[in-house]
Design a protein that fits this description.
metal-binding; binds zinc ion; chitin degradation; binds 2-acetamido-2-deoxy-beta-D-glucopyranose; chitin deacetylase; 8 strands; 474 residues; TIM Barrel; six-stranded parallel beta sheet; alpha/beta; single chain; GPI-anchor
Length: 474
């Protein structure tokens, strides 16, 4: 039986960390005044205690249950990340909250950006029905490359990173999971680890500081970690300062907790335009979208589980029937809850039979350095990693894990697969534009629902609320 780390040891570590932090603050302040701040080096000032190549995961007995409460019972916060509320935006509020727009570190980054070069695009408004207000926007010419209006991914403007939205390699399923981490995802991460499957994981900053152990598991397993904003709002409706804060504090959260600073991000609901892209580019971030959408988050709420299963089956059929014989795809899926993860584990074996490659976006794009830290290196596509049993990301993947894995029985949780019936016309383009309109989402309801205290439970209802409002607007 597992014995929890003694509280005394944790306290001692915290005191040690506190003293260390206090000392280093003094040091960095004095050097900051003598050295000019270089924007491209912003990530170097995150004083992380985590070595991304040597993450130790607490010995948590593996639960075979997919039940959230059962899995979270074993959650053990890591000793090398000490969350202090006063140093972060409020969880699930805009990242400028809690005075975070006025910290010296944030102002330093803000002031190092040449805002005169920012695209002159207005902050979008949310209409009374909660949807993005597109009135007056020229959707045909789409001057702002606003994905929510047009699914545009090529900014056509100097100095803005172009989006990645598909895997160019043939017969390839770009595997992406949004909205983690979460204390309740141990069985899912064990499954991916046992099957040696690597995915791109788009982590929400609030979740990373709330459940750091989950994010450390992601890094230790060699997944491609990316930024999914601090509070999961429609980014085009936020001011420049707010957009920068949403991205900056999530970069910081991921670095402090996992030891790596991402070079990729994904906007919630895909809501991005050239103004938001340009700000992301200032932090060295490239946008990753998708070209297939399972709508798995809606399973059991605004869509039936069998509808979502049918979508999975269609995308799987497309892997085997030649649709992707010349180039692959990136599929949007989520690790939100029991339903989304059960669907993932049910279909992954079928996906791997139908596609030659099932892998993270960094690997499918030959991006060997998906982080600023250049000691964490991914194998390029075409290396031994190509096989669907996948990635030799030379980061932590090979290092031993202290977890004693008992495979969860995914299939028992979800029963009969839906037979592949005649294909609906809802293939790539249809699902893509449906997503675009669904991304005309409503955070208004979410924002109203926001309470300053709400942490874990509130955050969950907020994610689901936002998605549900979005779905009703299609
Ligand atoms: C890895 O971390 C462990 C535990 O913190 C430590 O004892 C060990 O020395 C580290 N190994 C390396 C190679 O840094
Ligand atoms: C920071 O945000 C607060 C609250 O929104 C605002 O009153 C203040 O003016 C902002 N400060 C800066 C430097 O933007
Ligand atoms: C965390 O996991 C629980 C249990 O799976 C889920 O219900 C909840 O929605 C998740 N929270 C977030 C913020 O994703
Ligand atoms: C992919 O891996 C699975 C599981 O190891 C295997 O059953 C399947 O045949 C493989 N598919 C290809 C195309 O290599
Ligand atoms: C990745 O590298 C392989 C091997 O060099 C090459 O065949 C392939 O075209 C590259 N793919 C991309 C997306 O750059
Ligand atoms: C492949 O399967 C999809 C989904 O079932 C279907 O829409 C498409 O028409 C099929 N394509 C071919 C070439 O059979
Ligand atoms: Zn999301």
């Amino acid at each position: 039986m597992y014995i929890k780390t003694s509280a005394v040891a944790v306290t001692l570590l915290q005191i040690a960390g506190f003293v260390q932090a206090a000392t280093s603050t003094t040091k960095s302040t004095s050097t900051a005044s003598s050295t000019k701040f270089v924007l491209a080096d912003y990530w170097k000032s995150f004083n992380s205690k985590v070595d991304p190549l040597n993450i130790t995961i607490a010995k948590i007995p593996q639960t075979t249950s997919l039940d959230g409460a059962t899995q979270c019972k074993w959650y053990e916060p890591p000793a090398n990340f000490d969350f202090k509320e006063s140093e972060w935006p409020n969880l699930w509020e805009t990242a400028t909250s809690n005075g975070m727009n006025e910290t010296a570190e944030f102002k330093r980054v803000y002031n190092a950006i040449d805002w005169s070069k920012a695209p002159n695009i207005k902050v979008r408004k949310i209409g009374s029905d909660g949807s993005l207000n597109m009135a007056g926007y020229d959707q045909n010419n789409d001057p702002d490359c606003w994905w929510s209006a047009s699914t545009c991914t090529k900014p056509k403007q100097e100095g803005i990173n172009e989006d990645i939205y598909t895997c160019p390699e043939p017969e390839t399923w770009g595997l992406t999971y949004d909205d983690g981490p979460n204390c309740s995802h141990n069985a899912f991460y064990d499954y991916l680890e046992a099957e040696k499957i690597k995915a791109s994981m788009f982590y929400i900053g609030s979740n990373v500081v709330n459940w750091p152990y989950g994010a450390q598991r992601g890094q230790k397993a060699g997944h491609h970690i990316a930024d999914h904003t601090w509070s999961h709002q429609l980014m085009t409706t936020l001011t420049n300062t707010e957009v920068l804060a949403e991205l900056y504090y999530t970069q910081k959260a991921i670095k402090m907790v996992t030891g790596v600073t991402p070079r990729h991000w994904r906007p919630a609901f895909g809501d991005v335009d050239n103004r938001v892209r340009w700000i992301a580019t200032q932090l060295g971030l490239t946008t990753i979208l998708w070209d297939l959408d399972t709508d798995d988050w809606a399973a059991g709420s605004t869509e039936t589980v069998s509808t979502v299963k049918k979508t999975y089956e269609d995308y799987i059929a497309m892997g085997a029937n030649g649709t992707f014989k010349n180039s692959g795809q990136i599929t949007l899926t989520h690790e939100i809850d029991d339903t989304t993860m059960t669907l993932a584990m049910e279909f992954l074996p079928k996906i791997r039979k139908a596609y030659k490659n099932v892998l993270d976006v960094a690997t499918c794009m030959n991006i060997t350095n998906p982080y600023y830290e250049d000691n964490v290196v991914f194998a390029p596509f075409g290396a031994a990693a190509v096989s669907n049993t996948s990635s030799t990301a030379s980061n932590t993947a090979a290092s031993s894990t202290t977890i004693d894995i008992t495979l969860p029985s995914a299939s028992s949780a979800s029963s009969a697969a839906v037979p592949v019936s005649s294909a609906s016309s809802a293939a790539v383009s249809a699902s893509h534009s449906a997503t675009a309109s669904s991304s005309v989402a409503a955070v208004a309801a979410v924002q109203n629902a926001e309470s300053s205290a709400g942490i874990q439970l509130t955050s969950n209802s907020m994610i689901v609320a936002a998605f549900i409002v979005a779905a009703y607007l299609i």
